[in-house]
TrEMBL record:
Gene name of the record: msrP
Domain Oxidoreductase molybdopterin-binding: 82-237
Keyword Signal: yes
Protein name as catalogued: Protein-methionine-sulfoxide reductase catalytic subunit MsrP
Organism: Mesobacterium hydrothermale
Bound cofactor: record note: Binds 1 Mo-molybdopterin (Mo-MPT) cofactor per subunit.
Length: 302
């Protein structure tokens, strides 16, 4: 199938599945020996020498705060979330607003596998095979009206199934947003699977956003509402700390996070003492997406 986008990553580049699912433990140095034993040889070369916490300090870890901020909380509690049946409300500036059953949506979408770089803001990266469909197809089905400029996303908020929401660590529900042209770009997908399996609850089941040229936190999980708007919508991390997190959140090695450099990254699976690699502009998708930001000051619009 001919693609309207270029992505030269292949199966050989992908992060081994075991590393994807266990990366929080790897990153935080918990039970390093145990995990190393369960992984293919070579995948975890120098792991056993890891100083606990050293990675935590430099990386932080990716997450699903609705299930808690502890390292193991999402894996422990995300099973509490009921993901079937699932309804997505599409509203705002669309011709066909309404509540869409996910099963109906999926029957109309072309599902594909995409192998993408996925980068956490704190300086580590993976290459992950997501399964999903283009967000543009869903928006086209809803009928975007003239004048719509942004797409707002909202995660399900169910306190009884999400123990982390009892604490006001961030404002609930989790929200994110894209400019309409970013949302319509063929690289932007709604993912329903990973490694050819339905997505795990802790990774955002049954459906989450993936924007491969932006940081991980842009990838809002368990989406229940998509709203077309005229004005730039609020985003969770910008609301929590606007000095550190902006609306755009493009992977940009020239703009450091206030507390750490983003000029280099460590690829999960390369080993803890492997040389850091230079971070690629837009996560390696520069030729695909740079034109979206032509003329913009990306230091001001971080
Ligand atoms: N609803 C919701 N979506 C979320 C988060 C969250 O806490 N809640 N965390 C974000 C962050 S910070 C990251 S790095 C990615 C991590 O996704 P993954 O670990 O499943 O790949 O999810 C993002 N989406
Ligand atoms: Mo993150």
């Amino acid at each position: 199938m001919a693609h309207r986008w270029k992505n030269d990553l292949t199966r050989n580049d992908t992060t081994p599945e075991g590393l994807f699912f266990n990366r929080r433990k790897l990153l935080t140095g918990v039970a390093a020996g145990t995990i190393a034993a369960a992984l293919p040889r070579g995948a975890f070369a120098a792991g056993e020498d890891l100083e606990p916490n050293s990675w935590e300090q430099i990386t932080g870890y990716c997450n699903y705060y609705e299930f808690g901020t502890g390292k193991d909380d999402p894996a422990k509690y995300a099973h509490m979330l009921t993901t079937d049946p699932w309804t997505i409300t599409i509203d705002g500036m669309v011709d066909n607003p309404g509540d869409y059953a996910l099963s109906d949506v999926l029957s109309q979408m072309t599902l594909e596998e995409r192998i993408y770089r996925f980068r956490c803001v704190e300086a580590w990266s993976m290459v992950v095979p997501w399964n999903g469909f283009e967000l543009a197809d869903l928006l086209t089905m809803a009928g975007v009206q003239d004048g719509a400029k942004y797409v707002a996303f909202e995660t399900v908020y169910r306190p009884e199934e999400m123990p982390g929401t009892r604490f006001p660590v961030i404002e609930w529900p989790y929200v994110e947003g894209l400019r309409l042209d970013e949302a319509m770009h063929p690289l932007t997908i709604m993912a329903t699977g990973v490694y050819d399996r339905p997505i795990a609850n802790q990774n955002g089941a049954p459906i989450r956003l993936v924007v491969p040229w932006k940081y991980g936190f842009k990838s809002i999980k368990s989406v229940v509402r998509i709203t077309l708007t005229h004005t730039q919508p609020p985003t969770t991390w910008k609301k929590a700390n606007h000095r550190e997190y902006g609306f755009y959140s493009n992977v940009n090695p020239n703009v450091d996070h206030p507390r750490w450099s983003q000029a280099t990254e460590r690829r999960i699976g390369d080993g803890f003492f492997a040389k850091r690699q230079p971070t690629l502009m837009f996560n390696g998708y520069e030729s695909e997406v740079a034109s979206l930001y032509e003329g913009m000051d990306l230091k001001a619009n971080f």
